[in-house]
Amino acid sequence: MKRTLVVGVDGSPESRAAAAWAAEEAVRRDLHVHVVHAWLWQPLAVPVVQDRSVEARRAQEILDDTRAELTRRHPRLSLTAEVVPDVPVPALLRAAKDAEMLVLGTRGHSALAGFLLGSYGQQLIASAECPVVSVRARDGVARPEPAGDEKAAEGEAVAGGEVVVGQQGSVEESADVLRFAFEAAAARKVPLRAVRAWSLPPVYAYSLGSMWIAEQLGGLEPFEKVALEQALEPWKAKYPEVDVVAQVEQGSAGHVLLSAASDALLLVVGRRIRESALGPRTGSVAHAVLHHSVCPVAVVPHH
Predict the structure, then answer these.
(1) How many domains does the chain have?
(2) Which of 166, 218, 259, 295 has its CA 20 to 30 A from that of 269?
(3) Of 116, 142, 168, which residue sits at a domain end?
(4) Measured distance CA(89)–CA(132) in Å, rounded
(5) How many Cβ atoms from other residues are within 10 Å of residue 223's Cβ?
(6) C-alpha to C-alpha distances, 117 to 214, 249, 284, nearest whole angstrom
(7) What family classification does the UniProt entry report for this protein (predicted)?
(8) pTM of the model
């Protein structure tokens, strides 16, 4: 059974852009695409004429139109589609529970309020157990990767561009994020730029032991370079075909990543899974790049 990629659609131009990106990614990685439209009959408590059968038919038309378009572009694509009788967040979270990734569309302006599901987009990114990819669309059209046809997506390298990944924390903490990024770069046959941003911490933020190690290495930047190389080492061994550029830069992680990904095909960041009294959170770095990145952003949950 093929691994599955789930994409949420609602009939908007943004969701069509997300579906198009999802189909290309599925062809590239040999995944099955499952298209989901969440629709729940909810009579309004206002004097407005509603017709359940008409709305149900419209929901099915959204799926039929999406299926037809994706099949036209990718005749051999493995594809299923369903209308889920529920509100969007729980419907998509259930559908993506065992998926490789969940794909959402976002408008080409504004912030998280621009997701195809409105405020639901932020909830999905913060709560999903799998990576969530936000595909930015301008005027309802996703920025296509140069190798957009099925033949190129199946085996040829994407011309130009690279995958950019933000690496934070220890080898173990960044493993899931780096795995996703290396897989994406390998599938596209493009280089991977691994970025580790750092800033001067308050003296108490580093233990005496850490400060001693940094001192032996000649300062904090060499210390950060060693940490990045250690995190990359097992993945470089597993994906020797991927050319890796390691970049360590002082500054805000969000700003450094956005600068590095200005011409990227995909930007990959992590989201730490943690309990919070305020509910699931995306994290400050993911929040920043989701607001401002012009390329698709993959947010990968990790412990």
Answers:
(1) 2
(2) 218
(3) 142
(4) 13
(5) 19
(6) 46, 35, 21
(7) Belongs to the universal stress protein A family.
(8) 0.84
pLDDT for 94-153, tens place per residue? 999 999 999 998 865 444 434 443 467 788 888 899 999 999 876 445 555 655 555 545
CB 11: neighbour CB atoms within 10 A?
A: 16
- DSSP string spanning 205-225? GS-HHHHHHHHHTTSHHHHHH
Counting residues of the chain whose pLDDT is more than 70, the rounded percentage is: 74
**Domain edge (last residue) among 142, 177, 193:** 142
Domain span at residue 112?
4-142
Q: Count H helices, E strands: the chain?
A: 10, 11
Neighbour tally for 34: CB within 10 Å: 20
The CATH number of whichever domain residue 184 belongs to comes to 3.40.50.620
Domain membership flag for residue 105 = yes
- Average the pLDDT over each of 2-6, 149-153, 264-268 and give the range with the smallest value: 149-153
Torsion (CA) 204, 208, 209, 213 in degrees, nearest 10: 90
Both 98 and 169 in one domain: the answer is no
CA distance 255 to 275: 26
Concatenating the DSSP letter of every residue in 150-173 gives HHHHHHSPPSS--EEEE--S-TTT
What tokens appear for 296 in the block? 């698709």
Angle (deg, nearest 10), helices 120-127 and 88-95: 30
pLDDT of amino acid 215: 59
Q: What is the mean pLDDT of residues 248-265?
A: 91
pLDDT in tens, 178-230: 999 999 999 999 999 999 998 766 554 555 566 565 555 556 778 889 999 99
Beta bridge partners of 268: 165, 298
Q: What distance, in Å, lies between the first and last C-alpha atoms of the chain?
A: 28
Residue type at 50? Answer: Q
Residue 150 identity: E
Quote the CA–CA distance of 164 and 1 in Å, as a whole number.
30
Please indicate, yes or no, if residue 164 is contained in any of the structural domains: yes
